[in-house]
């Protein structure tokens, strides 16, 4: 299991109060998301307030023994409205993976989680490992709040 943290400078993302899903790429004004994004969005929408930053135009099919998850954005507004949002979202993500791979060996998970620190400063957490390791991301994010 690995969690790599990098700092980002982003603009125009601080107005969201829901958990947001970011595109992996924006190319020629097309919003490209990983293939799992749409089904995860439909699953998660039943449990939490979640939306796309931009509607998907294209899904990127990645064939691998790994599961590529959506890039999730936690803004300060979303976390202020719901301090438990990280925990809830990671539980929903874990449940989604369990349901999706029911009866099969659970894959190695790869995903990015971006957490807003200030108006333009963000931390990007790149996670790779088993589904059960997602709890470690929560611990790292919680330590940022202190």
Keywords for this structure?
146 residues; three-stranded mixed sheet; 29% helix; alpha/beta; seven-stranded mixed sheet
Short summary of the structure?
This protein has four helices and ten strands, in the order ββββαββββααββα.
Describe this structure in words.
- With 146 residues, this protein is an alpha/beta fold.
- Helix content is 29%, strand content 35%.
- The chain contains four helices and ten strands; from the N terminus they run E-E-E-E-H-E-E-E-E-H-H-E-E-H.
- A hairpin with a 4-residue loop joins strand 9 and strand 10 (121-129).
- The longest helix has 16 residues, at 85-100.
- The two termini are 24 Å apart.
Query: Count of DSSP E strands?
Result: 10
Helix content: 25-40%
User: What is the CA-CA span between the terminal residues?
Assistant: 24 Å
Tally of alpha and pi helices? 4
Poorly predicted sequence stretches spanning 5 or more consecutive residues = none
* Beta-strand residue percentage: 25-35%
Major pleated sheet: 7 strands, mixed
Rg on CA atoms, Å: 14 Å
Please write out the topology.
Layout: E1 2-9, E2 19-22, E3 25-27, E4 30-34, H1 36-44, E5 50-52, E6 58-60, E7 66-68, E8 71-74, H2 76-81, H3 85-100, E9 108-116, E10 121-129, H4 134-145
Parallel strand pairs: 2-5, 4-6, 7-9, 8-9
Antiparallel strand pairs: 1-10, 2-8, 3-4, 9-10
Helix pairs in contact: 3-4
